Amino acid sequence: MVEYEYSAGLDSVFHALADSTRRAILLDITSQEKSVGEIAKPYRMSLAAVSKHLDVLERADLIRRERRGTSRIVRIQAERLQAARDWLAFYENFWMSGLDRLQTQLESSRPPSAASRKKEK
Hints:
This protein is mainly alpha-helical. The chain has helices at about 1-15, 20-30, 35-40, 45-60, 80-110, 115-120, and strands spanning about 35, 65-70, 70-75.
């Protein structure tokens, strides 16, 4: 079922993005691909722990790892973020249109101000 596959893909993307370390890793590799060692350098955790974060990002198709010589190079795959962005955009439009309707309703039910009553006289 296509809808389920889409939902499962979104679930894995949002799960991957739910962790601040993984979000920082994605941000770090947006400008250029890096080796696993370069990615791990700023973190106070083991290389194995960073690799677990990379596993989650890879399962969500947000990164791709490839072997180059003795190094594992990591690059971002930003296309998967588009599905999450589209999902969020739908709800942003939903809430914004609701807030616009609420504002219109409030403005139409507001009693006239003192300044506007003076103009009417």
